[in-house]
Amino acid sequence: MELSTGTVLTSNNADAKLPMASTTKILTAIIIIEDCNLDNVITVPLAAVGVEGSSIYLKKDEQIDIRDLLYGLMLRSGNDCATALAIYHSGSVEKFAEVMNDRAKKIGVQNSNFKNPSGLPDNEHYTTARDLCKIACYAMNNSDFKQIVSTTNYSGKYRSFANKNKMLHKCEGANGVKTGYTLKAGRCLVSSAERKGMDVVCVVLNCPDMYERSCTIIDNCFRDFKLLKLNENSIFMCNNILCKILNCQSKVINNTAKINFKIKPLQEEYFVGNKKVIAELEIYSENNLLFTEKLYSIK
Asked: What's 296's DSSP letter?
């Protein structure tokens, strides 16, 4: 997907329901970032100590802030961090899973179900590549989240971490987001890269060569597509009246597209706020209409 527009650039088995291992933590992290003060210091509960799988080895009653826990969650994939954050947020892992499912639906996810904040195996814990890509795009639009997952080395008040995500070093413009692995889920990777003002988010699930495959997908997307955004200060003429674009929306177009415009006067003009919309600007690639923008008159 292209990040800013949510445009699907390429897909394969995008709606297959599959386990996603620690890529689950993308949703966990964005919920915590949206709902909590990252500078708050918590006391690590016993339930977060010795959690199965990857860990930053939290100790009972240890003092640590939410920010360091988030970096431990995303850079080191700490399942103990996930448990500590879930309990801090909702009181229990089970209650936090309810929040995860509710938040996922608000993001637009339709074919996923979350049972825990870390991605540990559970028959009722699954997603699809499409859903996970929607979650990742949503999360990457948050500046705090993007800063965390793009960090290669972190030094916090309580802990310091190096990022395990090799994608940051393998792909031009890579800026996130999360790896995952269990025997059941296989190798999973959500990745993101930004080049020339366009950001592509890629999801592969149960993919043995996840880094190589993701790099190829991302490279192909940048080869084939680009992001077009018209200059909102551009001036157009409609029936001898000067006009500007009402709302400049970014659109994904083919890299080989040759753009031309047509101005189509409206039979019935109308107002949006104090702006009088008098025409539509049609944007074409050769004879194919790509999209339209509203034009309002200026004095």
From this structure: E
